[in-house]
Amino acid sequence: MDHRAPLVFDTRELGRRPGALKRITRSVAAPEGLGIEVIGVPQGAPLELDLRLESVMEGVLVTGTARAPLEGECVRCLEPLAQEAEAEFQELFSYPDAGDWTRTAEPGDDAEDEERLFLEDDLFDLEPVLRDAVVLSLPLQPVCREDCPGLCPECGVRLADDPEHHHDTAVDIRWAALRDFDPADHKKTPRTRGDDPQEK
User: Fold this and answer.
1) Which residues does residue 70 pair with via DSSP β-bridges, in sequence order?
2) Radius of gyration of the chain (CA)
3) Which of 16, 121, 170, 173 has the most CB atoms within 10 Å of its CB?
4) Mean pLDDT in runs of 10 for the chain (200 residues)?
């Protein structure tokens, strides 16, 4: 693990003393791919981190907040939009030998070990935790404004720019003949006895 990487942090000052605390504020360039298809943090954008590192028996508990600008497009009108992301996270980075004295022989331990994050030479890489936290905080359906009317389904014009926009009501060709139908021209003729073929 490269200690010079912007999202790698050193915990040596905590000295494995349970209860020891360290606060870190750092501004880093956002890594690539920090987002979803319609919105995300631009690569290289300033990512502000406020971290609290606490030494516990099993390792170092990291609690933090990340703030970063977002760029994307409105899912209704497809116009560009700019917002700000704020994501909170908490993760335990275990000491490499923590499993030797905390593990209990129970089913599922192997699966749990695969999900655990470990310190390496008193260093931890925050990027995977940060990536999960930021992506999960993003809106799945970002809009430029809550009441965005979107686009006209017929011609694609942005309805917010032309609130009076409308088209003449289209008539399904299967029902076109009914437009000229006049019930008065089709009065029901009274039946007389013998008209019903079932009566013959």
Assistant:
1) 83
2) 32
3) 16
4) 90 91 96 93 97 96 97 94 95 83 48 77 95 94 90 81 73 60 60 56
